[in-house]
Structures are given as C-alpha cells and as structure tokens.
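Contributing new records

If you add data, match the layout below exactly. Sequence lines come first and carry their own label; structure lines follow with theirs. Keep one chain per record. Anything else will be rejected by the validation script.
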Amino acid sequence: MGLAASQARFLAITARKMNCEFESMQIAQQKLSVTRDQQAAAQEYQNSLNATKLVWDADNNCDGTGDVYNLSYGLMMTPSALNEYDPYLITDSQGRIVLTETMFNTAINAGIIDEQGNPIAKITSADGKTTTPNGLFTVGTTDATTGGSRNAFLYQLGVQGLADPSTIQSIYDLGEDGYTKSGIGGEIIDKTLTNAMTTNTFITYMQNAKDADGKSIYALDVISLLAKADTDGTVSDEEFNKTFCTTTSPSTKDDNGKIIITKSGNALSRQDIEKLTLGDLLSGKYEMTGVMGSDALATIAEKVLNGMAAKFGLGESANVKGLNVDATSESALNQAYEFSKLQLNKNYAVDSSGGTTYAAVSNAISAAQGSNTIAKSNQNISSVSLTNMLKSFLTNFAIAVEGNDSGYGVDKTSTKKSNYVTDDLTYYFVLKNDNATTEQSSLNADFYNMLYNQICMNGACTDKKVMENINDQEYLTHALKNGQLFVSTLNTDGYFYQGHYTASGHIAEVTDDDAIAQAEAEYNVKKTKLNYKEETLELKMKNIDTELSSLTTEYDTVKNLISKNVEKVFTMFSS
C-alpha cells in the first residue's frame, strides 16, 4: 500500500474510531439515564406501597374492619341506613356547607341563601337564638309545613332530581310534625336500630321492655297462644279456665287436657301468668305441665316455642324485631326453631313414675327441670321446662350464628350435659332497639331538616372549583386529608360541630389495595421497558467495543505501515 493510500486509510480509521468513541459515550449516558429511570420507578413504587384511601365504615368501628364502602359525597348527603339518616356535612374552613352546584342553585331558588351563599331564611334554634334577623322567611313549625322555605327547599330538591318525589311527599304528609329543630339543639330522635347486650343485661331488658302503650314487649303471652280468644281478642275467665288449671292437684275428671304453669313447681295464677316475660323464664325455673300424654303436650309446647321465636322476629323479616336484625340472624332463628322442635319429639320422653295425681305432677315437673325434652308420669301427666326450652332455643340460635365450634351445645335430654349460651355472661346478644324511630318518612324528614337548618345557620360555600369537584372521590379524599375541607357531624347536645374527618365516627383511612395493585402493574411495565432498553444499549455497546477493538488493531497496523514507509523514504533520499 502506498504512502498516500495508507494516510487516507489512516484518516478514515481515525474518523470512524472517533465516531465509535462518541457513540460509546452517548450509550453510556443513555445507560445512566435508564439507571436513573429505574431508580425513580422503584422509588415511585415504594412510595405507592403507603397509599391510603378514605372509606365509610358503616359499623362505626373507624378502623375499616366492619362493613366499609368507598367514601363519597353522595353517601354522606343522602339519607340511608349507612349514615343512620344523619347528614355528614362537608364544610370549608369558614364552616360553610359545601353543596354541589345543582344543590347550591336549589337553595337559592328556595330562598334560603343568596348568590354569595349567605343565609337569608331566618331560623330560630332550640335555645332561642335567631340567625339572619332580616331574613325573608320566618322558619317555624307552622311556616315550615305550610309552604315555608323548608318546604320550598324540599320542592326544589325534587324538581332537580336530588330527592325522590315520593320521599318529599311523605315528608309533606307528616304535616306540622314534619319540621323539627334537628341539628340546631332540637331533640335527637333515636335511630339506633340494634343494641348489643351481655346476657344479664339482655335478660333484664326482656323483663322490663315496654311498648308505647306500656305493654310488655317480651311477654310470653301463653294464654293468648293456647286459649280461645273472644272477638275482641281477649280471653275470658271462662275460656281461661277451660284451658288452664291453677293448682298442682288437678282433678283428672274435671281438669283432663288442661295446662298448669308453675314456677319451681308452684302453680301460677292467671295474673302471674299474664305478667310472665321471656326474661323471667331465663331468671327462674318455669314449667308447663299438662294433664295429658306427652304427644299432646308436645303439640302445645310447639305452639309456645313458636310464640317465643316470634318474639325474637321469626317469620317477620319485613319488620325487623327482637334478634332478627339481618339476613344471618333471620336464618339462624329459623334454624334454632327447627332444632328446638326436635327436642320436643315424643321419642325422647323421660319416664317419671308417681302414685297420686299430685305426686305425678311433682315428679313430672322435677324430671322436666333437668331435661330439655318432655317428661311424663304413669298418671297421664306430662311436663316440659319452659326455662330449658327457651335456653335451648337461644343456644341453638347462638350455634347457628357463631358456628358449630362456638362451644355451646344442647344435649338431647340432660341439662347437666348442656352448655347453654345463657350461662355465658360474656356473650353479646344483638337485639333490635325497640325505642328507635323506624318510620321511613320521619327518618327522611329528620335528615332533610338537619340539612336545611344547617344551611340556614351557616350558609353555603361559593368556591366553584370545590362545588364542581366535590363528587369526585379522589378530590374529596385529598381535600379531607390535606385539611382543605372538614366534616360537620351531629353531637349529643343536638348541634353540629366541625372537625377533622377522623372525628366523624364513620370515616376511616385504610390501605388502598387497588392503588397499590395499579402502581405495581405500572412499575412492572416500566421495569420491563427499561430492562429491554438497557439490554439493547448493552448490545450496542458490545458491538461498538468490538468495532473499536478492530479499528484500534487496524489503526495500529496502518500507523506502523505509514511509519515504515516514511522511514524508507528518508533512508532512500539520505543515501
């Protein structure tokens, strides 16, 4: 190769070598960039593992362990069992109620606030304090129920589709009772549908619970269950005496087929029987004895058992009462009833001999007290313990609710071998609150009265951005977490107080599993792309390194060749 050609080749190799080195530097920079992106993605994913969200805890546990729902403005501002028919008001830093734009305009059209959100409907709280004394409306019982601003507000809610028209109409139909000073110091109605009671409290409650007319809610009603009633629903003394005997020495001739109700073997009078409650049965020893065979008594006992179960809500799923508070308890009541009926099966009768009729009754009662079934004597006398019958029923109910591993059990015959739930003083019975308001129209009216009263008291937020985004769950969550918005809730004194969402009693902050799963999926996609890019750059780098190695070898060869050619030229011309 000539000198000129060698020099041209040398320049070409040098240029390519420099280009490769430049590309190598670029790839190195790109690899650094990929590394930074990988670190950023990993950090972002790590941060997402701490993602939380706000949920509505319907069980009021405030720890997210109960029945939880995604927190939403609609859930807090729509009457339902989830919020116990109390509005949970979103408020700004000035205490003004945050309404959607549609609801804000509804309040304006109803004449309770002006364009600036200031209240203009005059309202007097329960303590006599009046707001907006120059208001256009005077809100009171009469005015509110005969076309006042409260009714105008309800009407506008219906017009705008913010409330069901039938709901509005049901509140109108309440008349003067439809408006109350709820949320501004008025009487708080009891909306708690269930109460959890320990065994002793449960027994005492059933002994003393009365309805609005003063009648015992948990009376056994054994007379009405077994005796023929007159047309007015009452049982005459004549009919009572045809069915019941009030002595433990019945005449087999005159009292054959009659029932004797006793307490620890002592016969009860009609007045005593009428006062008898399910709570009394559990706190004493009560028996039902029949001057009859065990088969006949089993039929009568089944009627009494059905009456007991009915007191706890068996067969009345439409009207929740007693222990029937949800689908699970309703099913458990049915199961407990069926199992308890089996205890009355004639095949389990216990023989109890006796000489005289009195002895036969006493022996049958004594045998029944220690048994979960029917005891019979040889004098055509049979007896069953009402106390044990009720204990067995409640135990079977607890087993149906808690499961077969609950530790409770009813032996086929013996009470000594049974482990009744009523012997467990730590067990909680969840019972319907008989004093709670359950009338749907009253519940809805109370909710909207509170909302109306609070708008009249505090006005409404006018921030357009807040009104437009308040229905967005993510926005609501961030605003509550960051302290931009607050929650006003009803206090025990009948007034609303503003506070942090954690003080609401229902809002809980829990791990956002959905957000974490989404972040993990996004991280995996990013990681795959970056790994592929890194592998591609690595391959390019290897190819360039190979080419550089080849160019360096060729570079050194051409350089040596040029050096030798130059040396030959100098040698030739020097000689």
